[in-house]
Design goal:
Length: 168
């Protein structure tokens, strides 16, 4: 089994062992480098009953993480305030995490992913001018496109995401 050092955005380094094919390994290593280390994830959740909140990532249709948000497990919805960095979410954890769009400028179709539960993702829209999730903040809807897992690993998302285009 090969060992790899992962430098997380929180600044911590972790050594992990992976015994998977090279393509899957590279994908997993890239994903791990974009999320905080397990200790930081847990430390940010201390004090929340039954870990009711979790962080979320905003993915552009081009497959890049373009923002972050807090997910409220108690309400099963994304808090609508958007942060450019994971540290922004951490600094405002369980604080002022909701925003409304007041400018009505074009919005960008994005994928919203949360680490809550078994992890899942769905489509939404973001106004980058107001730094707000404007559509899709409630993933459990009758006509929803909720999928379990992570968008980085879900190949079936690409055609839907590309068809949606970008409004930014």
């Amino acid at each position: 089994m090969a060992e790899f050092d992962i430098r997380h955005p929180c600044g911590h380094t972790e050594t992990i062992g992976l015994d998977i094919p090279a393509k899957a390994r590279d994908r997993k290593l890239g994903w791990l480098q974009r999320i905080p280390c397990p200790d930081c994830l847990c430390s940010k959740r201390i004090g929340s009953p039954a870990r009711m909140n979790s962080h979320g990532e905003i993915w552009g249709v081009d497959g890049r993480v373009v923002g972050y948000f807090e997910y409220s497990g108690a309400d099963d919805r994304a808090c609508t305030r958007v942060y450019r960095t994971f540290d922004g979410v951490c600094d405002n954890w369980r604080g002022d995490n909701n925003r409304d769009c007041s400018c009505h400028r074009p919005r960008e179709r994005v994928l919203l992913w949360t680490a809550y539960g078994e992890t899942f993702f769905w489509f939404g829209e973001v106004c980058w001018n107001c730094m707000a999730i404007t559509a899709g903040f409630t993933p459990f809807t009758e006509d929803g496109d909720l999928r379990v897992g992570h968008p980085f690993r879900a190949r079936e998302v690409a055609p839907h995401a590309k068809a949606a285009g970008s409004g930014r």
